[in-house]
Amino acid sequence: MKAFRVAVFSGVAGVLALGIGYMAFADAPAGPVSPIYGVGLPEGYRDWPLVAPAQEAAPLDELRVVVANPTALKAYRENTRPFPDGSVLVKLAWKHEQSPDFVPASVPGAATTVQVMVKDSKRYADNGGWGYGRFINGQPADEAQHQTCFACHSSRVKDRDYVFTRYAQ
């Protein structure tokens, strides 16, 4: 009987190990990743719920939206700070253009960047728990652009878990 329990336990442990290994592999970015942080574009991010829109003034002159995965959105809605590990925020940005159909309105022009923040307090312990990615036309921006991410967030919004965007309710 004892040998049977050991065999069952070993089998369950093996299945769990395979499952955990699969989940880690499945969560790994499928495409290009950012230098320094190794952050990729998350699958399906364009279908994520809106956190907030923004309009960036000159010189960038951009329209922006921030979307969140379910973990980050729940933290926003429940005002949980710091954000829990597994939170992912994505900012999409386009050049700001006047609408050709309705003069007072703005419309997105050419896409400029997609920026990603991933919360993993162990992996990114030296950066407030966040990893960053900046992508232009689906490709990571250069290392110099990524070196500015944490410095900017830590100097301006450290007290809000390094997150600029506030939830638009």
Automatic annotation (TrEMBL):
Domain Cytochrome P460: 42-165
TM ranges: none
InterPro entries cross-referenced by the UniProt entry: Cytochrome_P460, Cytochrome_P460_sp
Highest taxon, organism lineage: Bacteria
The protein's name: Cytochrome P460 family protein
